[in-house]
Design a protein that fits this description.
The complex is a heterodimer.
Chain A: H1 2-25, H2 27-66, E1 69-74, H3 85-93, E2 97-111, E3 118-125, H4 127-132, E4 137-140, H5 145-150, E5 154-157, H6 159-166, E6 175-178, E7 181-189, H7 197-202, E8 207-210, H8 211-217, E9 225-230, H9 236-250, E10 258-262, H10 263-306, H11 308-316, H12 321-357, H13 366-393, H14 396-401
Parallel strand pairs in A: 3-8, 5-7
Antiparallel strand pairs in A: 1-9, 1-10, 2-3, 2-6, 2-9, 4-7, 5-8, 6-7
Helix pairs in contact in A: 1-12, 2-10, 2-12, 2-13, 10-12, 10-13, 12-13
Chain B: E1 2-15, E2 18-31, E3 35-39, H1 46-53, E4 61-66, E5 69-70, H2 76-85, E6 87-90, H3 102-113, H4 117-130, H5 146-158, E7 164-168, H6 176-191, E8 195-200, H7 203-206, E9 211-216, E10 219-225
Parallel strand pairs in B: 3-8, 3-9, 6-7, 7-8
Antiparallel strand pairs in B: 1-2, 1-4, 4-5, 9-10
Helix pairs in contact in B: 3-4, 3-5, 4-5, 5-6
The chains are: A alpha+beta, B alpha/beta.
The structure holds adenosine-5'-diphosphate (ADP) and magnesium ion (MG).
The site of adenosine-5'-diphosphate has 11 residues of chain B, from strand 2 and helix 1.
């Protein structure tokens, strides 16, 4: 029994050796054959690794900035189109709420000393926003309560706007024109000031002015978009319930007047969108695997025909049908695995490149590598089966006569 | 002792609508240790007969009893087993695999028989020594002369320790001098007690055997002792 197993093992070793010999004897043809597998596996690996890295960094940034906030968008009812200052104060009084930060956006023409006239998104924010998110201001001062109450014409600008408008001149204390109205620059925004949910969707702020000023410029007197900061130790579900109760009462229980989003619900939506997109793309990429498999099948069928004489000879020398079948299966398996290994290498390289382009951390995913090997093994066996079976069924007489 | 017995063996091959009658009522008995030559012109059915003797093919009708076994009753696996243990083939052209060295070619039957690598190497080397090719073991077929290739093929046929050596026109592709060398080797192998069947269309070559049968158009006639031809 033991001897029999050893015999089978040493036969398998010989099969591997002979298969490699055959694969490398036809180097160019083998390469062209595995190209399909290579591309398919590379695409799948690159997709999975990149999407994983991206969703990892997404949830990281959601965690760091998202804890303890809810974002509220008000569409309003016929009677009440948004929140007044009084409403905001009442909202702040709720036990679950520590503070609120309204915001109001507009697109405006910006210029400085008669120079450029560009259209830029201007965001109105409150002093509490700057108080809650440290590190937003790189130089100068943030917006404060006095600016809010007076609807002052002050602004903070980011480095892009600084560059466009000031060409290296120190912007602090200078005056810029927003829709023709003069604003004095009180500070500059730090480069990574992506601190709110909306900033993830819309990009980071370019110009920030007091939200009261922004409301005036938009000719509105109610707040329709705000971030709610939760009191310590209040989880977002409880807070959500409390806020819903309050808003329902405010809008006299009319439906669809407002929506409350928590960071985790936004993250869930984004992650599921991401995984949907990635499985769609992986599905498309796996078409390349099928095409690659057909390529391997085609080459194996050709090989069997070319080596009819060899097969006949081996059978005449005592090879059993299953031994011939195993030999050809091993050959297509190895061929596919070689393509798969190259594909994994290419895929990892590709995703490393993509990750550095998106400046997310690159993580080698063992799962993706196993998947790549699994795919190519499966392709090799599935598409090698029919040719190997054909070889094993050749009649030795006919095979020898073909020599 | 009787090595094999054939009774009324017929072989037909489909040829278009018709059946070509290639072997006609062949009766042949072979004793163990015999040296038989099957002599006949090209197309007379020699190779077809050899394939049946070597269990590569089965007859359309008739009985073939090899070492007390009715060949008709055996499965394909059992036939493969007989081919790898009991019969050594030397084919019409030497039929070496071009990408394997002489030694690897000789090892081939042992691989499928499940012999261990060390044992395989030992026996292949011993066999190549036997055919006087110990200095050519790692040469590839295209680095060997026709006679050397044929000797590798003979070593491969013998490596499994078969009781029957079956050679189809072993000198067909060789010049006279190398042909004589191969014949000398066959004589020695038979002298060592192996049963040998050699197929040829050449009367001079056939004379090397101890017994000759003629095959013409698929019909076998006893040719008596080699000396009479
Ligand atoms: N597998 C086969 N199918 C059809 N015809 C065959 C087959 N094998 C041999 N023949 C025919 O049988 C005849 C004898 O062939 P063969 O035994 O090879 O002759 P020899 O070896 O004596 O030259 C030839 O006419 C050949 O064409
Ligand atoms: Mg012939």
């Amino acid at each position: 029994m033991f001897k029999k197993i050893c015999g089978v093992l040493s036969m398998l070793v010989e099969c591997v050796r002979m298969s490699l010999q055959n694969i490398f004897a036809n180097r160019l043809r083998s390469f062209l054959t595995v190209l399909g597998i290579l591309i398919g596996v590379a695409a799948v690996i690159a997709l999975i690794t990149t999407v994983n890295a991206f969703s990892g960094s997404l949830s990281d940034s959601f965690k760091t900035m998202g804890a303890g906030t809810l974002s509220v968008t008000v569409t309003g009812s016929d009677l009440k189109s948004g929140l007044s200052t009084k409403d905001l104060n009442a909202l702040t009084e709720l036990p679950a709420v520590e503070g609120v930060s309204p915001q109001e956006s507009l697109r405006s023409r910006i210029s400085h000393a008669g120079s450029h006239d560009t259209r830029i998104r201007v965001t109105g924010r409150s002093g509490s926003y700057f108080a809650k998110n440290e590190g937003l201001v790189s130089r100068g001062r943030p917006i404060n309560v006095i600016d809010e109450n007076n609807s002052s014409r002050v602004c903070l600008i980011n480095s892009d706007v600084t560059e466009t408008l000031f060409y290296g001149v120190d912007p602090l204390g200078e005056t810029i024109y927003i829709d023709g109205m003069p604003f004095s620059v009180i500070g500059t925004l730090a480069d990574d000031s992506a601190k709110s949910v909306t900033s993830i969707m819309n990009g980071s702020d370019e110009i920030v002015i007091p939200y009261t000023t922004a409301m005036k410029m938009n000719s509105v007197n109610v707040v329709t978009s705000l971030t709610v900061y939760l009191a310590d130790g209040v989880d977002s579900d409880t807070a959500n319930d409390e806020l819903e109760e309050w808003f329902d009462a405010l809008f006299s229980y009319e439906e669809d007047c407002y929506s409350i989003m928590s960071m985790s619900s936004i993250e869930d939506t984004m992650q599921s969108m991401l995984s949907m997109v990635s499985s769609l793309l992986a599905g498309i990429a796996s078409i390349a695997l099928v095409v690659g498999g057909i390529g391997i099948m085609n080459m194996m069928l050709t090989t069997v025909t070319e080596r009819t004489a060899e097969i006949g000879l081996k059978k005449a020398l005592g090879a059993l049908p299953w031994q011939i079948q195993v030999q050809f299966l091993i050959e297509s398996f190895l061929l596919s695995m070689i393509g798969g290994a190259a594909g994994i290498a290419l895929g990892l390289g590709l995703s490393m490149f993509l990750c550095s382009m998106m400046s997310t951390d690159f993580l080698i995913s063992v799962q993706a590598i196993l998947l790549g090997f699994g795919f190519s093994a499966a392709v090799g066996i599935v598409f090698g089966w029919a040719p190997a079976r054909k070889a094993s069924r050749l009649n030795p007489i006919d095979a020898l006569r073909s020599m | 002792m009787t090595f094999f017995r054939m009774e009324k063996i017929n072989k037909f091959f489909p040829m278009g609508e018709e059946q070509a009658h290639i072997l006609k009522d062949i009766d042949l008995t072979l004793e163990e240790g015999d040296y038989l030559s099957i002599l006949g012109p090209s197309g007379s059915g020699k190779t077809t007969l050899m394939n049946i003797i070597g269990c590569l093919d089965v007859a359309s009708s008739g009985r073939y009893i090899l070492n007390d076994r009715e060949i008709e009753d055996l499965t394909e696996a059992e036939l493969a087993h007989i081919r790898s243990r009991e019969i050594g083939f030397v084919f019409q052209d030497s039929q070496l695999l071009p990408r394997l060295t002489a030694q690897q070619n000789v090892e081939l039957p042992l691989i499928y028989a499940g012999t261990s690598p060390a044992e395989r190497r030992r026996r292949a080397q011993a066999m190549l020594e036997r055919v006087e090719l110990s200095d050519r073991m790692n040469h590839f077929p295209n680095q060997l002369s026709g006679g050397q290739q044929q000797r590798v093929a003979i070593a491969r046929a013998l490596v499994g320790g078969p009781s029957l050596l079956l050679a189809d026109e072993p000198t067909g592709a060789l010049d006279q001098k190398t042909g004589r060398q191969v014949m000398k080797l066959f004589g020695e192998l038979n002298g060592e007690g192996r049963t040998v069947i050699m197929i040829t269309h050449d009367t001079n070559i056939a004379r090397n055997a101890r017994r000759i049968v003629h095959i013409i158009d698929g019909e076998l006639t006893e040719g008596g002792d080699a000396a009479d031809v």
